């Protein structure tokens, strides 16, 4: 697998606001309906407790995938909000 830098582009105005991320200590195969969630705005964390599935979809996970996991998730049709890398 090869990764190539193809260029630098300005961030569109609609995407310039820093997102709020979700985080939990529930293992990847754990029951996310029972998970206790925290949110992070780039500066501070705050505990929010349980989130509905709809609310969980509002926030990306606070985690990174390596290139291999990212490719596998794309090939499997997974999307980042539904599973950990």
TrEMBL record:
This is Uncharacterized protein. It comes from Simkania negevensis (strain ATCC VR-1471 / DSM 27360 / Z).
